[in-house]
Structures are given as C-alpha cells and as structure tokens.
Amino acid sequence: MRRFLATLLVCGFSFPVIAAVSVGQKGSDFSLSNVDDVRFSLATPRTTPLVLIFTTKDLGSVSQPWRDSLTTALGSAAQIQTVLDLGDVSRFLHSVARTRIRAQKSKAVLDWDGSVSTAWRGNDRSRVVVMVVAPDNTVRFMLSGVPVSPNVRQVTEAVRRVAATR
Questions:
Q1: What is the DSSP string of 20-41?
Q2: What CATH number corresponds to the domain at position 154?
Q3: Sign of torsion, CA 97 102 106 109?
Q4: Which one, of 124, 160, 146, 159, lies nearest residue 51 by Cα?
Q5: Is residue 3 domain-resident?
Q6: Could you tell me which of 140, 149, 135 has the C-alpha nearest to residue 43?
Q7: 52 lies in which domain range?
Q8: Residues in CB range of 44: below 8 A, 6 or more apart
Q9: Are strands 50-56 and 129-133 parallel, antiparallel or unpaired?
Q10: Number of domain units in the chain
C-alpha cells in the first residue's frame, strides 16, 4: 500500500477536491494579514487572476513548493496568495506560532481561527488545495495534490484561460 501511494505521488496524481466553494461559484470575501500585519483582502479589485493556496502548519513542506513552482511558472500573470489555516493552534501559542512563521519568512496570510479556510476549502485539512480565482472572485479551477509538473501545468493553463476571458 505504501508503495502504491508513493507511486501515485511521484506520478503526479491529483486528488479530487471536495470544497465548500465549487468551481463556478463565488467565494465569500475575506481579509487576513500576514505575520508582518500586511493585509490581504479579497474585496480589493484585481485585474489579474488570483491563485489561492490553502494549507496548514503541518503541510508547509508541500505548500511552499507549490508557491515556488507557481511563482516561477506564472511570474506576474497572476497574484499568488497562501492562506495558512492555524485553527488548531491554541490561543496560548499564537505568539510562538507568529515567531516561527516570521523566522521562516513566510508571506502567507494567517487564518487564526480557520474559518476562512473552512469556508473556502472545506473541512479536509489533510492536503493542500489550490484554487484559481477570476477577478470577479469566481473560482475557475481547483486542485489538490503535490506540485509536480503536470499539476503545476494545469494551474498555469487555468490562469491563462482566466486571463484570456478578461
């Protein structure tokens, strides 16, 4: 079984996404800040597609390669934003989490209670979910899995399709 799962990951298998916001739907507006209190708001008008990467503190080793690969592939064709679900971090440990996140130089916006992540991604915290969002905040593409070339290519193509429909 272990070998089968490893083969799926290596071959670029992507899992079906069961999310709270489906492709074709508009997600709710949200406004979150990163560790340096720089605010990101979905209500801010955009002219380019947005790639949202929903992750948790336990999936950083998977979500960071997604961000790096997509940044390299897309350049300025899309805005890329990581949403870090910290809903399972006790309030008592927020300052410790903030210190660790700052030390990693993360640009992720922090979803301290997990409500934004749950509203968009759903309750499954076991994998990274990547969404391509049009300037009108409609989700146009969704994927979860690992950042291997076929998956990165799918996201890149989705961004290009959204950009072409502006």
A1: SS-TTSBPPP-EEEBTT--EEE
A2: 3.40.30.10
A3: positive
A4: 159
A5: no
A6: 135
A7: 14-164
A8: none
A9: antiparallel
A10: 1
pTM: 0.85
**Residue 11 reports pLDDT greater than 50:** no
103-144: pLDDT as tens digits: 988 889 999 999 999 999 988 888 889 999 999 999 999 998
Residue recorded with tokens 């950042």: 147
Locate all alpha helices (DSSP H) within the chain, ordered by sequence.
Answer: 2-10, 60-74, 94-103, 115-121, 149-164
Q: What type of residue is 149? A: S
40, 143 Cβ separation under 8 angstroms = no
For residue 55, tell me if it sits in a domain: yes
Dist CA 142 CA 15 (whole Å): 10
